[in-house]
Amino acid sequence: MKIYFELNGKPQYVEVEAGESLLSLLRRLGMKSVKEGCGTGECGTCTVLLEGKPVRSCLTFAPKVQGKRVTTLEGLGTLEDPHPLQRAFVEAGAVQCGFCTPGMILTAYALLQENPDPTPHEVREYLVGNLCRCTGYVKIVDAVLLAAQWKREGQWR
Questions:
Q1: pLDDT tens across 112-128, in order?
Q2: How far apart are CA 74 and CA 107, in angstroms?
């Protein structure tokens, strides 16, 4: 079946199978930031934004995004022009192996859209479904709080 959706601000008309996952479709479309970690929705590595809300792309059927807006990390910023949240992750040292980073950043982005002034506890609660095997989460929470500060100061697009 052919579906239409918006990917990182650009229209997509693609052929999908009824049982194809959004993860598979996004990888097929060249989105390298979307990774499969567990395949069961437990780790958050495959997190993308669907209509601005974090979803596990490994559990979302591709046909379900018909007519909707999907954002991957590629849609936030680039190497040349990173989003402030991406800069905050680098500045706070919240990236190590980088495998979980795209899902963490997209989940944090959704949090800061809902709550621009979260407490450390609220950040931890919001990120609870995103697993990191390297950082111990302290620097990730620091990065989200730094980005929140930048957002409140108007350094956010």
A1: 999 999 999 999 999 99
A2: 14
Query: What sign for the dihedral angle of Cα 113, 119, 120, 123?
Result: negative
Could you report the per-residue pLDDT of 46-99, keeping only the tens digit for each? 999 999 999 999 999 999 999 999 999 999 998 899 999 999 999 999 988 888
Q: Where do the domains of the chain lie, and which CATH numbers do they carry?
A: 2-72 (3.10.20.30), 84-152 (1.10.150.120)
Q: What is the pLDDT of residue 157?
A: 67
DSSP state of 71: E
Residue 91 near residue 146, CB atoms below 8 Å: yes
**Whole-structure pTM over 0.85, yes or no?**
yes
User: Which among 76, 96, 91, 89 has a CA at the least distance from the CA of 33?
Assistant: 76
Which residue type does 55 have? V
CA gap 97, 71 in Å, rounded? 22
